[in-house]
Protein: NitT/TauT family transport system permease protein
Organism: Actinocorallia herbida
Amino acid sequence: MTADSLVRKKGPKDRRKKPRTNPRDVVMSWSMPVLGVIGTIVLWWAATAVFAIDPFLVPSPGDVLASFTTQPGYLMEQFWVTLLETIQGFALAVLIGVPIAVVIAMSKLVEQIVYPLLLIVNSVPKVAIAPILVVWMGFGQMPKIVMVFLLCFFPIVISTATGLKNTPTELVDLVKSLGSSHLQAFFKVRFPNAMPHVMVGLKTAISLAVIGAVIAEFVGADAGLGFVIVQSGASADTALAFASMALLGLMSVVLFYVLSALEKVLLPWAEDNR
């Protein structure tokens, strides 16, 4: 018996029927978040109406919607700018962070050298780094991508390295005793076992990615939703700022649930074990 056959072979006890999805649970999983959003909007509208809050301070949901409908093309154009910066920085963090996490998990020496450096970089306020990035790279997209990368890098590395180190030692020893190499043991056992941790890191990072893009746009940009918020604040157009923030929230939620859906497709066994 080889390591491959051990991984692929499934006995009768392993062929469990996948539990049938309850339609009620599906409806609840979608309806409750929607009801939460609707309830928040209703409370927001009621607060602005009951307390007669000046729209200059807190616009009502109607004011925000009106601001969006008056210039939807402009706002969506800025939306795509921020989304592109977010995805590019996030992808860069994944491409660099996961291999570094693998090296950290494989070598205790590398972990002792790299971990303090990661903690130092992560502890520096990113708002303080943003102006320096503008000086170094100008006002283009690159400073925004790097800022997103800096915010996403740490959770991806930590979660991936933790997952790789938490692989049961006896399972790795078992596949090695069956003649598998270190590389085969890694790809057949350690990395699949670490994938739930990796997905946790990715879902954490994707929310931070949107924040990173907006921070960079606050400091130096001529496009993007962060730029719109700064400009609308300068012109006292609070409704436009709220419309931009609503789009940022929508972006973050959609990206998070895209990763959650990807996790269910790639790791159905992890979902069943919860």
In short: Confidence is low (pLDDT under 50) at residues 6-16. The chain has two domains: 27-58, 62-272. The chain is about 80% helix and 0% strand.
